[in-house]
Design goal:
single chain, 144 residues, alpha/beta, Signal recognition particle alu RNA binding heterodimer, srp9/1, 2 domains, 4-stranded mixed β-sheet, 26% strand, elongated
Amino acid sequence: MARDIQITFDCAEPGAQAEFWAAALDYKLEDPPPGFATWDAALAAWGVPPEQRNSKSAIVAPDGSGNRVFFQQVPEGKTAKNRVHLDIRAAPGLVGDERMAALEADAARLIALGATQFARFEPGPREAGFIVMQDPEGNEFCLD
């Protein structure tokens, strides 16, 4: 049986990163625990000081499928290229100019959310073409 996994990002601003990635992946912020209308109410009830309430956040697929994505605050910033990254499948089944146009359209959507476009790789004999992006904290991901 395949195991469930959680994807974890170390970051400076978990709430902002969660908002960005929820929009990028068509996910939603994880609901607060039963009995609480908001996460802030839950954290207050658990005695978490206000200055620590943005230390963690998570997003999930609205229909319950897919992997949970967790964001945890760390003191250090990003210093090098990611060794692991996400590929967002933005143009499945498309090829050539149609594929690249679909990738560029999704890149524009993500740029409006705070991402930056880092590099564009054109289709070739061994490559379908893809765009390398960076999230608001500089983590690389690809539009594939």
